[in-house]
Design brief:
Layout lengths: L1 H18 L2 H24 L12 H26 L5 H23 L3 H19 L5 H31 L9 H7 L5 H19 L7 H8 L2 H28 L3 H23 L5 H22 L2 H31 L10 H4 L1 H15 L5 H15 L3 H26 L18 H15 L3 H11 L3
Helix pairs in contact: 1-2, 1-4, 2-3, 2-4, 3-4, 3-10, 3-13, 3-18, 3-19, 4-5, 4-10, 5-6, 5-10, 6-8, 6-9, 7-10, 8-10, 8-11, 9-10, 9-12, 10-11, 10-12, 10-13, 11-12, 11-17, 12-13, 12-16, 12-17, 13-15, 13-16, 13-18, 13-19, 15-17, 15-18, 16-18
């Protein structure tokens, strides 16, 4: 199954360049997404590794499942996006091929068992993602693509230096970048070099995960990228980088430096939530608003993982809750952009009258991401605050509650302003089909299931993944 996930995408991309057909482009991305989903399901039941470099465990299978579901849902919307796009077939081919390479690269990161390999595959996502961000062209898109390339490349360079320090920390004669070897020998590593390596790699991979203070690429990239790409950036790419950070956190715990790593990650997580709270109440671009929400939620996941205990379960649950909520919101923002021809919050009103389906999905997405029951975010944040109070971190919990209240207020004021009122007279009357809403509806149903009644199999799946932290 792993070779199909990894190698079907480049083979399909090559086929697209041979035929150069918009219909084939849309079909192939959708086909790959559902083959990816089928392979993921089989791997969950039959976790077979692929050599030493790609191995399955409960943690990366969970992240792979989230990635696969997001990719499938977004690919359905992408069919209509590609078919109605005004670009020629060659540019459409470049776009679809980049989507395939982007998805395969993220899958390789998630399934990777070697830190060096994961580093290489994350850099591949930078290359493919830069073209996808620049897809619509223009000054703003070019600036966003260059900022994404520049900042993420610097982050990856930091991570590379961190890997060198990790090798120096190894007291044995044969340093290894395979996580299995690192876990086994972590207790023998030199403490100074291990601390230094974690700092560099947390900052480096934190760049790709959208954590402050190395988050600056994210709002611009999400704002300028096509809606399907924004959904994948927020709901899939950030998770891939976060998985590497979670692996490194376990290394620090096994090296008896878990306290140092936890404090460092809590600082990054709190700073991320603070940055989101400051900017989200001032922003007048709904896609940038969703981007700052992503920064906030990645900060929450980081804090959950650093706190540990019951919060580890919260970190894993919050990962899926954020991914499905944000994928739905970004895809729905594509419908809004098509109808209103603007990304400005002030230019969008009366969605309930102009496009009721999009309006209800927009508000449902807000309810889910804000942690209002039946959102699973409510459960994950409840577990986080309970763990913080239990560990005597009540002052940190109060500060986090205040920041989250500001974020929710900022998003709510924009969401309801866009949904209610009278629609402008100059909006388009474009007709949307179920492909424009189907993925979001499925995401909402999954979120309701996680928040209202979590099947035992799903709870077991999440618990097993959390046990790996």
């Amino acid at each position: 199954m792993i070779p199909i996930i990894l190698f079907l995408a480049p083979a399909a991309a090559l086929m697209l360049f041979i035929f150069r057909s918009k219909k084939l482009n849309a079909f192939m991305v959708c086909l790959y997404a559902f083959v990816h989903l089928a392979c993921t399901v089989l791997l969950i039941f039959y976790p077979i590794s692929f050599g030493r470099y790609f191995e399955c465990d409960p943690l990366n299978l969970y992240f792979l499942a989230v990635l696969s579901v997001v990719l499938a849902g977004v690919s359905v919307y992408n069919v209509d996006f590609v078919m109605k796009s005004a670009v020629d077939s060659l540019k459409s081919t470049y776009y679809s091929a980049a989507i395939l390479i982007f998805a395969a690269s993220m899958s390789a990161v998630v399934l990777g068992a070697n830190l060096g390999l994961m580093w290489v595959c994350l850099e591949a996502t930078t290359i493919a993602g830069a073209y996808l961000i620049f897809y619509k062209e223009g000054k703003e898109a070019l600036e966003a693509a260059w900022k994404y390339m520049f900042i993420c490349s610097i982050g990856i360079a930091f991570a590379f230096v961190g890997m060198i320090f990790l090798s120096l920390a190894c007291t044995g004669s044969h340093p290894s970048l395979f996580f299995r070897d690192i876990y086994a020998a972590a207790f023998t590593y030199n403490g100074f070099w291990l601390k230094l390596s974690f700092v560099f790699m947390a900052i480096g991979f934190g760049t790709k995960a959208g954590l402050a203070p190395v988050h600056a690429w994210l709002p611009d990239a999400h704002s300028e990228a096509p809606s399907p790409v924004s959904a994948l950036l927020s709901a899939a790419l950030l998770n891939s980088a976060m998985l590497v950070i979670l692996r490194l956190l376990k290394v620090m715990k096994l090296g008896n430096l878990g306290g140092f790593a936890s404090v460092f990650l809590i600082v990054m997580g709190m700073l991320s939530v603070f940055v989101a709270a400051v900017y989200i109440i001032r922003v007048n671009n709904y896609k940038r608003m969703l981007a700052y929400s992503s920064i906030e939620n990645m900060g929450i996941i980081t804090i959950c993982a650093a706190i540990g205990g019951p919060a580890a379960f919260a970190a894993i649950l919050h990962t899926a809750a954020h991914s499905f909520s944000k994928a739905s919101l970004f895809v729905t923002s594509g419908n809004i952009l098509k109808r209103y021809k603007t990304k400005e919050i002030s230019g969008v009103t009366g969605m309930l009258r102009s496009d009721p389906k999009a309006a209800w999905l927009w508000m449902a997405g807000f309810i889910m991401i804000a942690g209002i029951p039946p959102s699973p975010v409510f459960l994950s944040e409840f577990l986080l605050f309970k763990a913080m109070f239990t560990q005597g971190l009540w002052w940190l919990a109060v500060a986090l509650m205040l920041l989250l209240t500001i974020v929710i207020y900022g998003m709510a004021s924009a969401m309801f302003k866009m949904s209610f009122g009278n629609a402008p007279k100059d909006i388009t009357d474009e007709k949307f089909n179920m492909m424009n809403y189907g993925g979001q509806i499925v995401f909402m149903l999954i979120l309701c299931m996680l928040g209202l009644y979590m099947p035992k199999a799903v709870s077991w799946f999440i618990t097993n993944a959390a046990s790996m932290l």
